[in-house]
């Protein structure tokens, strides 16, 4: 597993999907001191990554641990222009949930609507239903979305869809692997399976498919 350092002797921070979920893991720790003790490590990881999306995830993690609205707002600010719409929508959903629990139902609707729209566009069904449920809990009525024409991407797994979209945009296997925290070999495996499901033979064939 690759690690990044730079916080002092012997300190290493894993750059894996598991790291991004550390706030959730911390919240499940049984000791009261556990969640708060993970905050410095999360912030150190974000500084090492040096990317806006990493700072957004760190701020979101702090918000989950501290229940502080300012941290949610910092996370949303960091998400702007970071190019991670799914993670931004997750933060909006969490912030909307926080506002609703604080009995600020009117304030909760804007971030929940934004999250819902993104999850619809990304076809993230589980997250879409969660956002829809939260938005309805604020008292907002939602009209069921009309069925849309089946997309070729509906045949793929979530990971395969991510890989295919990046490949269609010209990303090499190594570049895609770095962005998704995978190995190049795993990327090639996902492409192989996706090509079979889509009845195509090469990356050039992706250009004729509707991948929106």
UniProtKB/TrEMBL annotation:
Residues 149-212 form the HTH luxR-type domain. One of its GO terms (molecular function) is DNA binding. InterPro entries: Sig_transdc_resp-reg_C-effctor, Tscrpt_reg_LuxR_C, WH-like_DNA-bd_sf. This is HTH luxR-type domain-containing protein. The keyword Cell inner membrane does not apply. Keywords: DNA-binding, Transcription, Transcription regulation. It comes from the Bacteria.
